Amino acid sequence: MKKIVYIFSLLLVICVADLKAQDNHFSNINEAPLFNSPANTGFFNGYFRAIVNYRSQWAAMNKAFQTIAVSVDGGLFKSRRRKAFLGMGLTVFNDKAGSANLQKTNALLNVSGIIKTGKRSAFSVGIAGGVSSNNANYSKLTYASQFDGNNIDNTIASGETVVYRQFTTTDIAAGAAWEYSKVKTDQDHDDVSSIKISVGAFHLNKPVQDFGPGSAYRIPVRTTGQIITHFDFEDTKFSVTPTLLYSRQGQAWQFVTGSYIKYRVKVGTKVTGQKTENGIGIGLFYRSKDAIIPTLIYEVGDIAFFTSYDINVSGYRAATRYAGGFEIGFRFNNLASSLFESRSEFK
Q1: Measured by CB atoms within 10 angstroms of the end CB, which terminus of the chain is less buried, N or C?
Q2: pLDDT tens for residues 21-50?
Q3: Distance CA 44, CA 10 (A)
Q4: For the segment 181-227, what is each residue's pLDDT rounded down to a tens digit?
Q5: 3-state secondary structure of 251
Q6: Coil, helix or strand for 265?
Q7: Residue 2 φ/ψ, nearest 5 degrees
């Protein structure tokens, strides 16, 4: 209990700190592990994992940001007798916004190495590499010269010469992660306490954004740091998951922090190996100077559904009327609900 109080106190201090935010993010920060660090690839209880996230941000703004991300990963040569194994994964990310449908599609192949550093701990390092494609329908752009006194008339010649173009670049990322977990086994249920710390660095090669001739702008490196914890309250069906995510890119930086409170509808134990651990959770998160985020998750066996909604509290709330971003997602984690089989890989 002292650990839980300490972590919540830390999160509260962070919430009131003077922080800056950045765009293009997911509010369900626990459900985007490969986008936070390549070291999370294959580093989970289970053999195969697939996650789909969809986000629509700032719907009050015409042609708002729409983002979809898909990740799949798993462990290779995973065995209770081996102290180390490999993780392999793939991430695909697409972001679209604006009247010209400006799109960025990023696809990365992830590889990680996971080694058990003790009876209750494991460490991972990972790298990722792939391509990023950028394009738009520039013919849909309008200009001030097309204003007829009342409206923008796109039949009026703009007098502009469009030199923007599509382009593809390479992208490289790396990261590290460490996890410690403890399981108290009982006859009818298990109580788990765990903490996972991960760091990541994306766009390490700072790819040039070649939208036009002579373009020299490079994407700044995005760095991340995340702490995910999980505490089952002993002899109850309740759990909490205090979480913190920090990210920085160029001069922009942000914190996202909060927790789920979960009720385990069904509990299980390694003694029987029952495939249970079904539950429902509600959460509340905060993105620094940007949004308050209520969340909901429903887990049944290997499958989970989650959703969230950003209540915008930034200076932009005058235009959004507090409407931020809607997000929904799905996770499939093979053997996640099999306590005996999945956890034996790490214990």
Answers
A1: N
A2: 344 678 999 999 999 999 999 999 888 999
A3: 25
A4: 998 876 656 788 999 999 999 999 999 888 777 777 899 999 999 99
A5: coil
A6: strand
A7: -60, -35
How many CA atoms lie less than 13 Å away from 103 in the CB half-sphere? 12
**Residues in the chain, how many?**
347
Helix (H) or strand (E) holding 339: helix 339-343
State which H helix or E strand residue 34 sits in.
Answer: helix 33-36
Segment 126-140 shows an average pLDDT of 86
- Letter for the amino acid at 330? F
Look up residue 160 and give its two tokens.
């502009």
Average pLDDT over residues 147-161: 71
Helix (H) or strand (E) holding 240: strand 238-240
321/191 Cα distance (integer angstroms): 43
Instruction: Detail the DSSP E strand segments found in 250-313.
Output: 252-266, 278-287, 291-300, 303-312
Highest mean pLDDT (candidates 52-66, 207-221, 263-277, 286-300): 286-300
pLDDT digits (tens, 9 = 90+) for 232-253: 998 788 999 999 999 999 888 8
- How many Å apart are CA 93 and CA 202, to the nearest integer? 13
Q: Could you say which DSSP state residue 151 is in?
A: S
Question: From CA 54, how far away is CA 64, in angstroms rounded?
Answer: 13
Q: Considering Cα of 38, then 39, then 40, then 43, what sign does the dihedral take?
A: positive
